[in-house]
Amino acid sequence: MSIALTGATGFVGQALLDAAQHAGTPLRALARREQAARSGVDWLGGDLADRAALKALVTGAEAVIHVAGVVNAPDPAGFEAGNVTGTLELVEAALAAGVPRFVFVSSLAAREPQLSAYGASKQRAEKIVMASGLDWTIVRPPAIYGPRDREMFELFRAARWGVVPLPPPGRLSLIHAEDLARLLLALVPGGEDVTHRILEPDDRRENGWSNRELARLIGAAVGRRPWTPHMSRPLLHGAARIDGMLRRGRAKLTADRVRYMAHPDWVVSKGARPPAALWTPRIETRDGMKATARWYRAQGWL
Question: What residues contact 221, with CB distance under 8 A and at least 6 apart?
């Protein structure tokens, strides 16, 4: 199949390129900057605001996998532009080109749009996809980890230092980027068991992981048993202000993210898991965490 891909240069996108190459699946991928040649990938210059580039991306495609999105922004407008308007432009381009299949990577944050501007923007993007008339599937991944990830890397680095501050007690699900990438490719053909469905994939651990269990998993991966104190919401908001002053636009801990982190339940819904006949995760989480730590060390990040 001819597959058009957005977000190919990001963390999940790179894992998807690896999975597609392994499967022998060619892709046409959008990128803001010139990319090194890669077998099986036809690179196109542009972004989600470039209508001419989007038209070129989807023309002749049999499916779109929409991974690109904004996960961190200084204000709601940044999320709106990247996640809502960008998705609308891509959907309109796909409709105009007659693309029949659309796979959209959203987030579990869309389940609770009142908590964060990020989650609200993802929910609005989902509504655009659902109202499009396309043959769509929406994937809401939980916390994603794996090589190249710069978000959860902050926890690996903190564990290496011996202290991982945690939000108030809660639970979350996890998925390795490679497993997510395999799912996205498996969804491309569609079918009645996945069409017009919102799916929530994970590592199949029942009831997910507690925040402290996650911190200790990461600690074991870097060879430490870190101190894992829970922080109150006021303390987290104070830490977010400090991070904003120190790193400004590059801050990882924002007020928007604090509201998301403090929510106690980010475990996938059992009834929303992908059909087991189509996909099951292959990477055991403890092994995946250790392999991710090895990758960070090899790159000089840890």
Answer: 156, 159, 286, 289, 290, 292, 293
